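My current task is to audit a protein record that another person submitted. I need someone to confirm that the token line plausibly describes how this chain folds. Take the sequence as given and treat only the tokens as open to question. This is what I was given:
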Amino acid sequence: MTGNTWLIKDDRVNPYTFFQEVFVFYIFWWTTYNKVTNLLVHNSLLNRIPEEKHVEAKTRIISSIHAIILTVGTTGYLLDYIDSDTWIQFLPLSIAFGIFDMTIITLNYKSFKKSYLSTGIHHSILILAPLTITRESRLTLAQAYICEITVPLIDTSWYLYNAKLTNTLGFKINSAIALVVFFILRVVNSLHIAYELVWRDNIVLTFSSFVLVSLNIYWFKGLIRVYMRTR
């Protein structure tokens, strides 16, 4: 069935309207980032971690906010609380975050040098893949987006690790949960999605899914190494 909304035309995203939304949300993410920066100036949380990690800490707060919003919307769609046309409205927000985050890490390249390539590849998929979405591929894309639930868990572990709080019960519990959830939602889930897309005609999403599988396995191995060092 083909449907048109303010964001969808002939069952695909309407580029003009879509990128207007992306621009608005790009400003939203910059505003949020500035608000977070101002709040942290009056907070001692950043004092616990090295100064060179402060920018990354702020970007991780924004990434967690993005992940929570996207997880709520995607869960609502997967559980049939909202329809697919409503869920589509979350995509400009997500693409804007990808562009915003790439802006920050590019401007602060020295601080993000080690993870720049992998993050850049991931964000390129985040930005480009939704533009190829059709009604038939919406559910698959939503299944991929549900992996964002891992982001706040990983960001919390990152903060506790850099704050030298690895001996705390909170770090050990959060890190263990993060590993299990990451493995299920990012590794197993992405493998399942890649398998499904092999039988589809969407070449862009199929290629993107295999790239994401590789990235998720790479990141999972890194998480295991960090976890083993802190035991």
